[in-house]
Amino acid sequence: MTADQEANLAPDTEDAGSERSPRQRIIEAAFRIFAEKGYESASTLAIATQAKVSKRDIYANFSNKQDMLLACIEGRGQRMNLGAALPRATSAAMLEKVLASFASRLLVEVTDPIIITIYRLAIAEVARAPEIARTLDRIGRKASQQALTTWLAQAQQDALLGEGEAAALAAEFLALAWNDLRTDLLLGVAPRPSAEALAEQARQAAAAFMRLHGKPAPRARRSAGA
């Protein structure tokens, strides 16, 4: 593992010392070990050593490695749920702007090396432990997509967006926003774009979506003497 990868896997808080609970230290250590060695090769002894706890502490908090991986996913997967802060659009221009902002935040969060590592771990274990992938999908992708669906349905009611199933429209927009990026990153065949490049990709996706589905503003009535 490179120095940059180790930095990316560091705890989210500045204090990673003794003030952190044993459970939290175990989760952080487990994630590092899973990312470095893979789920199958990770040992509870290695996790306990890095977390500076005993194996007894591990089994007091988790039944098995799978429970630890689920805890890693649940703790970090919330970063992918971005739907809570979507403001109600009052114009087509605002609709496009909010879509671009939503997509930009989504791309930045989900292309984070930590999140990509979580996806890879879930994919690697899908045959043995499909609930890991289901948990990741539920708290991440599905939560954001459902929030976007609800928001687009409101835009339709406000006559800002054309007809169609809101869920299908949400899926279409997310496909436009991602293009091939997530697959490229999961396969490791492309580097993570800069924040500026991700924002531009999001703007282009929002503009394309509005060209396809946005409703034109009604024309102002001409006066009788015109």
TrEMBL record:
Residues 20-80 form the HTH tetR-type domain. Residues 43-62 bind DNA. Residues 1-22 are annotated as: Disordered. GO terms for molecular function: DNA-binding transcription factor activity; transcription cis-regulatory region binding. Keywords: DNA-binding. This is Bacterial regulatory s, tetR family protein.
